[in-house]
Each structure stands twice: as C-alpha cells, then as structure tokens.
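Structure tokens please, single chain.
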Amino acid sequence: MTIAPARIPGVAASWLAAVEEGLAERVAGVPEPLTGPCRRIVTAPAKRLRPTLVLSAAACAGGGLTPATLGSAVAVELLHCSSLVHDDLIDAARARRGVPTVNGAEGAATAIVAGDALIALAGEVAAAVDARTAAAVSSTLSELCRGEARELAGRYRAGLSLAEVIGTIEAKTGALLRVACRLGAEAAGADPRLTAALDAFGLSFGTCLQLVDDVLDVVSTDDLLGKPTGADFAAGTVTAPAVHALAASPELRTLLRPGLDDHERRRVRSLLCEHGVGAAVALARDLARRSERTLTAAAGLGDDPTVRALAALPGRYVRRQLTTRVPPQHRHLLPALP
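Here you go.
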C-alpha cells in the first residue's frame, strides 16, 4: 500500500519527494561494492510509511518541512531499510516485492555489511539533526534487536502467549512507527500531551500493521503479497494467528517443528485459517480503532483535519490490505469489514 502524503491535510506531496532526494543522496555516498545493493533496496517501490508518519506528525503540530523533520524522516527510513536487509538474510528470502534481496543477489556477507552501512547512515543523519534525535534512533535500533532476539528465542514454542507475541511485535515493528511519530512531533515543537499521543499512536499502528502482515502470510498468495507466503509457521515463528490456532488444535502443535513437507505445510495453513485468522483480524481492527481514538482525543484535537486524517490511517491500512491482498477463496475467513 502506498499512502500518499497529499491525502493528509497540511502535508505537501513535495515533502516526500524531498525525502526521496535525501535518501538517494545518502546512499550515493556508500562505498563500493555496497552502493548498488543499498541503492536497489532503498529506492525499491515502497510504502514510505515511516517517513510519511514523521511528516504527518509534524503537520499535526503545525510544523512544516524543516531540516529537522526531513532529517528525521530520512534517518527513520534508512533504519527501516537496514532492518529489511537483515530480515531477508535471516529468512533466506530471495526477493521482496519483485526486487532481489541483497543476500539473494550478492550473498550473505554483502547483506550483513550493507545492512550495517544503512544503520550507520541512519545514525549519521540523525546526529546531524540533534543529539535527541540521534539518541531516539539508537534506542529504536536497540528495540529492533530486542524484538528480533525475542522472536528467535520463541521459535517452535507452542506455549507462547498472545501477550508475549504482542510484546515482540511492539519491539520489532511498533518501535519504528513509534519513533517516526515522536520525532515528527518533536521536530515541530509539539506540546508534551500531543507528543505522547502520537508516540502511543505509532506503537499501536505498528502493532496493527504487523498483525495484518501475519494474517496475510496465512491467507494471501505469493503474487498478491510480493513475497513467499506460508513462511512464518514453517520457520517456527509463532504469530498471533498461530497462538489462537495452537490453543484450539492439538494437531497443529505436532506440526510446529522443522522440516515440514508440502502436504504438512498445506495442512498447517488449513488449520491456521480455521482457528487463527478471524481472531487475529479482529484484534488488528480493534487496535486500529484504539489508535484512532488515542490520537483524536489528544488535547481535544478531534476536529483538526490533519489529526483526523492521520488517525484514520490504521483503519485504512487494515481495510486496504485485506481487500487487495486476500484472494476470493479466503475472504470468507475475515470478519465483515466496516
């Protein structure tokens, strides 16, 4: 899903164009042989959700495109791109939305160094804004590592609780959206109450986003999603749909192990569809509604068109992903969309 900044009142489309220019300029400075791989990943078709959130949060506070908002947006997106490079390496993914991954095209060693180079760039850009921004980006990197470590430690553990899974999601995915909203607010000089509301909104939105992605891994197709589906459970990753399904299906517990054959993988997806998808979608939709209420209630800003438009993004994301990424044969599994 591409979220157009022009749909957020107060955010000009040219702002995100400036982010694109900033990203291209930074990647051009990466030394060879990393320039090509890093440029391919950073300039690949993408949602640009995180920089959009930086700019939108700034607009909610009445701010414009300043060096601080631009630098924050570029830093957050570079950190996100670094996480994609390392995630693809961990998952041994060969492509993402039709673009070859670094480990798939240039090998694991190059992927490690390229991901590290993007982290370094994110830190440099953040430090050029100010010390607070640099500290926030560094803290978010720590959170991403903590989330990845929790996910690795939880592999093939059938007894993981939903609270444990949500905690991992908040660290691994929510942290980046959270810092995007916070940095945008701080760059625009938002008051503490609005900053706190935007911070909480970003965390909830990130969690909602990941829940939807976990559902799509079960019910979508490789072509619709742009990456291999059915990969999470096969790799031992216990997602929210799996938590619900494992509690309801003793058979699924016996299948939570390495080395599943094609027949077993099909059976896993059937059980996840039957027992886990509906509950996970309902949770994602509930989080989207809570995110909207959290933001619109902040300092009585529910009548502000910029705030309202930003607050509506999680609900838009859920609806758009579920209506465009789920094939007809699986749409009956989804709770009725509002």
